[in-house]
Amino acid sequence: MKRVAPLLALAGLAAGAPSLAQDATRLRDLDAAARVTLSKDELQQLMPGATVSRVSGRGNRNIWKNEPGGSFVASSDNKDRGSTMPSTARGQWSLSDDGRYCVRIEWRSVETEDWCRFIVRAGNAYYGTRSDQNPDERIYRLEITK
Predict the structure, then answer these.
(1) pTM of the entire structure?
(2) Model confidence over 94-108: pLDDT tens digits?
(3) Cα angle value 104/110/22 (rounded, 5°)
(4) Which domains does the chain have, with CATH numbers?
């Protein structure tokens, strides 16, 4: 539990950081910011040891630190349940052959989360997307720091 509070505090700081494309919801919204899809080689440099935070589809702030061996412990503020008690879950991260960042989180109270996304950088901001080719594809903001 000692790791959760500092990680959630860090997430709160990251959430307030300005970004070039803060209101972006579709891949095309990043075009003016000269978006770039990170290659697998770039992700191999960025992701080990990186702290990742995001707001889930349920409105929860989730945060984790990618351990070099492919594991992490994620924390959630459980905002969707009106809870003031954060929870944690074990997870794994990896990079797919085609250069996507893949995450599996085994939450206790909701179903297991399992996804892979291309990581796109626009200015200093990072986004996950299922396709880096379709301009109408939805994007998901990720705070990635080392």
Answers:
(1) 0.82
(2) 999 999 999 999 998
(3) 65
(4) 4-145 (2.40.128.640)
